[in-house]
Specification:
- The structure is a single chain.
- By secondary structure, the chain is α+β, with helices and mostly antiparallel strands.
- Helices cover about 30% and strands about 25% of the residues.
- It contains ten helices and 18 strands.
- The protein has an eight-stranded mixed β-sheet, with helices on one face. A four-stranded antiparallel β-sheet has the order 4-7-18-17. A four-stranded antiparallel β-sheet has the order 12-13-11-14, with helices on one face.
- A hairpin with a 4-residue loop joins strand 5 and strand 6.
- Helix 1 crosses helix 3, helix 3 crosses helix 10 and helix 8 packs across helix 10.
- The chain is globular and about 85 Å long.
């Protein structure tokens, strides 16, 4: 089965995660997909297959040669983003892309255009898989799953390519920051691994944001508006004031590269109570800590005007994996060589986001991130190049060969 055939099959599963359920996996569709994948790896004849109650699926491709070869792993996540529906995904292939607008949904006038998304022009002449404009596609990270399985199958069919023991791992809930929380690194049993969860062709990432969430709760006092003078505290207005105290240029829409930000991702409010949900991101650990302190400072400042009305709960989510990868930088050098051998130019860059590999690296499994080929993740304009998926598959095969010294 080709990588694109696998991918088109996998996107049929609705696997959105949900941070409100407090379950693992957070949604039943993820476990349904994990069980399906368990059947796939069983049919492939892989060994040491396990699927636990939390939706973590592990399997092994045994070594086909002797020697002291490190056990390595490849990891992808089974969930898709809760930012947009992943139910009833209806993909189609745009063959030999010509550089023009792609009409995703004529009835709703939804168009994927290089005017808004100039990266499209990087894919002239390639076959693209797109959505119908009503859902996300799910290349994040079903492309990664398809690539890993296709690479493993290729190794099975080509025993002349020598490799050591290869572990694969598919986990839930990456999109809500919980993918690595119950990942049993010891049972996975690898010296190092790679997440196939990056974006465009050639991306190789071992620096990511330090990340935290902040939930600001503002208590108001509701009084009949006709008699409210000096009595009412409208929590929505207080919340608005809080929002405007944060620097407007330090938001996602105004930052790039190594620049961090505060991102307001949700508001739920009434006169009586309003909650603001933020994510805090910065590559630099000191600046990251200062950002958290700034949120706390603004809470205290709000309470000087409205005593006792404002509180905050800040939770660290993950940290920059760079400090864990640099001591074993050969894992990056291996991936770079594997890409070059596949005719791909490595593009080492920081992740402006997170990855399971960051948390896994801090749990003792060095785990940089490799491109899976998708663009415009988490929305209706998501697409993936079939060529990029094939190159990712080839990169995985090459890593296995290089680690075995072949």
């Amino acid at each position: 089965m080709t990588v694109e055939e696998r991918f088109l099959e996998f996107v049929k599963f609705d696997t959105q995660s949900d941070e409100e359920t407090n379950l693992t996996p957070s949604t039943p569709g993820q476990m349904e997909f994990a069980r399906y994948l368990k059947g796939v790896v069983e049919k492939m004849g892989l060994e040491e297959i396990s699927l636990d109650d939390n939706g973590y699926l592990f399997a092994t491709l045994p070594a086909n040669c002797e020697g002291d070869i490190p056990v390595i792993g490849f990891i992808a996540h089974i969930d898709t983003s809760p930012d947009m529906s992943g139910r009833n995904v209806n993909p189609r292939i745009v063959e030999d892309y010509n550089g023009r607008d792609i009409v995703l949904n004529e009835a709703e006038d939804i168009v994927l255009s290089p005017e808004q998304f100039p990266e499209l022009l990087n894919y002239l002449g390639q076959d693209l898989i797109v959505t119908d404009g009503t859902t996300l596609l799910g290349a994040d990270d079903k492309a990664g799953i398809a690539e890993i399985l296709t690479a493993v199958e290729y190794l099975q069919q080509h025993p002349e390519i020598k490799h050591g023991k290869i572990r694969i791992g598919f986990n839930p809930d990456e999109e809500i920051g919980l993918g690595a929380h119950k990942f049993d690194v010891e049972r996975f049993g690898c010296e190092f691994a790679y997440t196939m969860d990056g974006g465009a062709l050639g991306e190789l990432e071992y620096e990511n944001f330090n990340a935290a969430s902040a939930k600001v709760t503002i208590k108001g006092r509701n009084v009949h508006p006709g008699y409210a003078k000096h009595k009412m505290i409208n929590s929505i207005r207080v919340a608005n004031n809080f929002i405007t105290m944060l620097p407007r240029w330090e938001t996602p829409e105004h930052t790039e590269g190594y620049e961090g930000f505060y991102h307001l991702v949700g508001i739920n409010g009434s006169v009586e109570e309003t909650t603001l949900t933020y994510i805090i991101r910065d590559h630099d650990r000191d600046r990251f800590e200062r950002r958290k302190r700034e949120i706390e400072h603004l809470v205290n400042k709000t309470n000087t005007e409205f005593p006792g009305c404002c509180s905050v709960e800040i939770k660290d989510q993950y940290y920059n994996m760079r400090e864990k990868i640099e001591p074993v930088i050969h894992v990056i050098e291996i991936a770079e060589q594997a890409m070059r051998d596949a005719g791909v130019t490595p593009k080492v860059q920081p992740i402006r986001g997170g990855t399971d590999g960051a948390q896994l690296s801090f749990k003792g499994l060095p785990c940089p991130n490799i491109f899976a080929g998708g663009e415009n993740f988490h929305g209706r304009y998501e697409y993936v190049s079939i060529n990029s998926m094939k190159k990712a598959t080839e990169t995985i095969v090459n890593i296995c060969r290089i680690v075995a010294g072949a």
